Amino acid sequence: MHVVAAGARSVSARTIRSASIRIVPFLMALYFVNYLDRINLGIAKNDISTHLQLSSTMFGLVSGIFFVGYVLVEVPSNLALYRYGARRWLARIAVSWGIVVVAIGFAPNVATLLALRFLLGVAEAGLFPGVIFYLSRWFPRGYRARMIALFMTASPIAAAVGTPVSAWLIQVGDGVFGMAGWQFMMICEGVPAIALGVICWFYLTDSPDKARWLQPDERRWLVDVLAQERRQVRSDFRFSLRGALTSPRVWALALVYFGIAYGLYALAFYMPSIISGFRKTFRIELSIVQIGLITAIPYACAAVGMYLWSRHADRTGDHVRHVAIALFVGGLAIPVALYLHSPVLVVIFVAITATAVFGAIPSFWALPSRFLAGTAAAGAIGLINSIGNLGGFVAPYVTGALEQATGTDKAGMWLVGLVMLMSALLVGVLRATPTRDRAAGDTN
Predict the structure, then answer these.
(1) Which helix (DSSP H) or strand (DSSP E) does residue 204 occupy?
(2) Residue 341 — very low, low, confident or very high, per pLDDT cuts 50/70/90?
(3) Residue 30 to residue 14: CA distance in whole angstroms
(4) pTM (2 decimals)?
(5) Does the structure show a pLDDT above 60 at 209?
(6) Residue 358 clears pLDDT 80, i.e. is over it
(7) What is the pLDDT of residue 235?
(8) How far apart are CA 145 and CA 139, in angstroms?
(9) Which DSSP category does 372 fall into?
(10) Which residues contact 201 (CB under 8 A, 6 or more apart)?
(11) Cα(217)–Cα(211) distance, rounded to whole angstroms?
(12) For the residues of 271-302, what is the DSSP string, one character each?
């Protein structure tokens, strides 16, 4: 019996290792470029605003309109990924968003920039929830949060490494072929997405049963374990696609994710501005590259903290508490940072906020697959991500409007903290509700 158990552990360890090495690094590369293409607008805020004469409110609109297109197409995109397979659909997403980012580099005015940012959301819709759904088809429940965390470390790494690189591209690209620095940066960062999209078509495998790169016993073990989990979910909850999309639990999760996304994108678009504000607050002169390097510090902390926090969540199995604690800590830290009288302390508290926001995400995305499977999971994950990412539209616009109205960034950051604290409270309420959430009429 001990020999059989040891053999099973050996097969499971080999399988998870093979699958993670094959799949996760490529998805990380895809998300690295994706996240960089999302936040590079914030890095170039001052240059773009000067070049195209954008007010703070208009910059917030340009930043946030991306999420309008994103939300409109999110659920259909995820259902298309379920139907056509991740390999084809993720390749389509990467190529189309890369083309739009390159086009943004040639935007001659505000109207064109707004239209292209909207199209970028349409082109990119489905990437993140598609990958989350794809990982749920490859990794059993006990490994899922840490695999999502590994995949998602690409975003803080992109912010940590990509921020100074983007700043450097703006600096060296100014005047190249008659372009402004921000235009040169956009073009340089759009091309890798197109290349990765082409590679994706030939590299990814849609499901474990088609993975010829796994050993037969590894493939059999993975297919059996995942099939057993799906049968258990269907037996316990029996959600149809329609039932999932109308489930109160799914909509509550969407509201929680709204708070997470609100904090995430407020930081992404305004952290460089907070750091550049050191000139006024602490009388410290910083170049755009130095701002990028300092901005990278919180994201480097977030990359490490996110993985360790999600690994602990997988070990305890208590993902809800890990989401709530992270949001609570982040919600308190961000407004405190505004009242500190030392640049070092400001960076430390911003790093705490970034680590908390990123730390909440992998544990959050381990929750839907605990009661959803198949098309219900694909549709609901798309819905949660689309509604949640309205926070990505609201946060930069409201933060910019509050900054313009008050002349300071304090009001906007206080609101960020409040929204995150409300999400922490909501996920705590969800924990107290019954686990079974059967909508009327739900059947397979």
Answers:
(1) none
(2) confident
(3) 25
(4) 0.75
(5) yes
(6) yes
(7) 53
(8) 9
(9) -
(10) 87, 88, 91
(11) 12
(12) HHHHHHTHHHHT-----HHHHHHHHHHHHHHH
Of 100, 87, 120, the residue nearest 198 (C-alpha): 87
* Residue whose C-alpha is closest to residue 287's, from 186, 190, 181: 181
Q: Are 214 and 349 in contact (CB under 8 A)?
A: no
Q: What is the pLDDT of residues 385-408, one digit of tens each?
A: 888 877 777 777 787 788 778 877
Q: Give the Cα separation of 373 and 381 in Å (integer).
A: 10
Tokens of 216: 């037969």
Among left, alpha and beta (phi > 0; psi -120 to 50; other), residue 374 is left
The string over 312-331, giving b where at least 16 C-beta atoms fall within 10 Å of a residue's C-beta and e elsewhere, is ebbeeeebbebbbbbbbbbb
Q: Compute CA distances 443 → 12, 137, 244, 376, whole Å.
A: 33, 21, 10, 11
Cα angle 251, 256, 259 (rounded to 5 degrees) comes to 130
Query: Is the pLDDT at 138 greater than 80, yes or no?
Result: yes
Judge residue 352's burial from the number of C-beta atoms within 10 Å of its C-beta, 0-12 exposed, 13-18 middle, 19 or more buried.
buried
Rounded Cα distance, 120 and 98, in Å: 9
CA quadruple 329, 345, 336, 149: dihedral positive or negative? negative
Looking at residue 3, its pLDDT comes to 41
Q: Is the separation of the CB atoms in 390 and 74 below 8 Å?
A: no
Give the confidence band of 1 by pLDDT, cuts at 50, 70, 90. very low
Mean pLDDT of the chain: 82
Q: Hey, what domains does the chain have and what are their CATH numbers? A: 23-206+223-432 (1.20.1250.20)
Q: Name the token pair of 429.
A: 């309420």
- The predicted structure's pLDDT at residue 397: 75
List Cβ<8 Å contacts ≥24 apart for 7-16.
8/221, 11/217, 11/218, 11/221, 12/221, 12/225, 14/215, 14/218, 15/214, 15/218, 15/219, 15/221, 15/222, 16/139, 16/143
Q: Give dist(CA 353, CA 348) in Å, integer.
A: 9
Please answer whether residues 154 and 29 qualify as being in contact, where contact means their C-beta atoms are separated by less than 8 angstroms: yes
The Cα 342–Cα 25 span in angstroms is: 38
Q: Output the pLDDT for position 8.
A: 52
